[in-house]
Amino acid sequence: MVWLFVVIAIVVILILIFAGTYNSLVRLRNRVKNAWAQIDVQLKRRHDLIPNLVETVKGYTTHERETLEAVTNARNLAQKAIGTGVGAQSKAEGELSSALSRLLAVVENYPDLKANQNFLALQEELTSTENKISFSRQFYNDSVLNYNNKTQMFPSNIIASVTGFKADEFFEVEAAAEREAPKVSFS
């Protein structure tokens, strides 16, 4: 009779551990989804700012068509990459960041443009958005790290594999230009 209570107690404990671990995995997976949604919000904001920035620059630069087209094409590719997965989207966004960097480097050759209030406001908005994207990426990657740890560490990895939880992708910098330190010159 005592052994029956021991077996029942062990089964109840195992069920509680399973339920707690499963709920923890669901919570972490939802945190990853939320973090990705926050990145999407900031990327949409950046995508919305770029046409205005390009149009403002276009008014001052007549022979920088190649750079402007590269930014526009990179933006279009980044928008098409939405929903295709973290890896594909982070690659497209890296290319967009690289194209934007080239555009802002071209702007240095146009003092009138650099002094234009519309351009300055757009540049400030873009800088603010880039900072928000950076913070959102960091939060996303932290969330993915916690989730991946839970799905890959014993004993929760057993429950994760049984219930279909899989490790998620990190949002990584793909473009070599983004990995380089910015060059600062006071000359």
Present the secondary structure layout:
Blueprint: H1 2-60, H2 65-80, H3 86-107, H4 111-115, H5 117-152, H6 156-163, H7 176-179
Q: Helix-strand pattern, N to C?
A: HHHHHHH
Total number of helices:
7
Biggest sheet statistics: none
Q: How much helix, percentage-wise, in residues?
A: over 70%
**Average pLDDT, to the nearest integer?**
85
Distance between the termini: 89 Å
Query: Structural class, judged by helices and strands?
Result: mainly alpha
Structure description:
By secondary structure, the chain is mainly alpha-helical. It has one domain (40-178): LemA-like domain (de novo design (two linked rop proteins), Up-down Bundle), CATH 1.20.1440. It is 80% helix and 0% strand. It is built from seven helices and no strands. It is rod-shaped and about 90 Å long. It starts with a helix and ends in an 8-residue tail after the last helix.
Task: Name some characteristics of this structure.
single chain, 187 residues, mainly alpha, de novo design (two linked rop proteins), 7 helices, 0% strand, disordered C terminus
Can you summarize this structure?
The chain is 80% helix and 0% strand.
